[in-house]
Write a structure and sequence with these properties.
Lipocalin, 161 residues, globular, mainly beta, eight-stranded antiparallel barrel
């Protein structure tokens, strides 16, 4: 399979000049990638579609937001492996994809930049606030911050910062 390098030349140039990492989406648009491990409480189960009764204390995320307004979130969830970084039994993995939009304002900051991830008809949306160029933080539907626990928070970091 031949790759059209002209298609990615501008992205490669921007990446080399700025040090910012981009991934190519399936549509060929550059995507910004955020990664992290969050807590797995009832609210986050609801908005991601993880079954309410699933045994889960953490979720590993890889979220790609492309410039065309599409996103892809790869998630693995389950119980923390004892004395190790993984999941008991490897965890369960799935993907969420759809469209994302920008809006402005949280419950405490009317100028904050919000990413709204649409999961489709009759599905709850996922909201994240841009803390800075490197960090996104999950929000409740009322745009208040999700608060983590002793083991995990609710922030994703830009990959390869």
């Amino acid at each position: 399979m031949a790759i059209n390098l002209k298609k990615y030349a501008a992205v490669i140039c921007i990446s080399l000049m700025t040090g910012i990492s981009y991934a190519a989406s399936a549509q060929g648009f550059p995507a910004v990638v955020y990664v992290g491990t969050t807590a797995c409480d009832a609210y986050i189960k609801q908005v991601t579609g993880i079954p309410a009764k699933a045994e889960c204390d953490k979720i590993q995320w890889k979220l790609s937001l492309d410039q065309s307004g599409k996103y892809l979130a790869s998630l693995t969830y389950g119980l923390q492996e004892q004395s190790g970084p993984g999941f008991i039994g490897g965890g369960k993995s799935f993907q969420i994809e759809g469209n994302w939009t920008n809006e402005t304002g949280t419950a405490t900051d009317p100028r904050a930049k919000i990413y709204r991830l649409d999961r489709g008809k009759d599905q709850p949306e996922i909201l994240l606030v841009k803390m800075d160029d490197s960090i996104l933080h999950f929000l409740f539907s009322d745009k208040k911050f999700l608060i983590g626990n002793a083991g995990y928070g609710y922030a994703l970091s830009r990959e390869n910062n």
